[in-house]
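Entry type: protein chain
Record version: 2
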Amino acid sequence: MKRFIWLIPAIFVLCISSARAQDLPAWEITGGYSYLDANLSGTKFHMNGGGGSLTENLNNWFGGRIEINGYYGNDAGTVASAQTITYGPVVSYRHFNRITPFAHVQVGVMHASAGYLGISANAFKFAVAPGGGVDLTLNRSTTLRLDGEYLITRFLGLTQENVTGTVGLVFRFGKK
């Protein structure tokens, strides 16, 4: 009997591990507030907006995310807008009960209106956005997401190095 006493904790740990794996959502939809600190060779201004993303979790640590954001601001009396649509892999570290840190590298396009950093006509440009953040679990199906990115684009022949931040709610559904 003493030899088998270790089986009870082992079975308990295996049950917890399998129960935790069942909590992995297949999909996550996010919506929230976005901020863009636009920067082109020292010319800086701030833009506010919103956005959303859709993430498919392929397993416990890897998935794919498409993200769309829209920003609006005023630079010296000129109203400007910018929109991004990016896609890429996301890597999550799901080893805590209420906190899930993640990192991603997304690639896509940025569309800017005339007046954005002095451009004379609407334009689409290549964009890359490495970043990361954390999901804070509110309940089984909802989390609060804090996300930041280093958005790199190229307008007017100059490279832009922008910083973005997003705060939003994540709704999880499906099971993996």
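Comment: The chain is about 10% helix and 70% strand.
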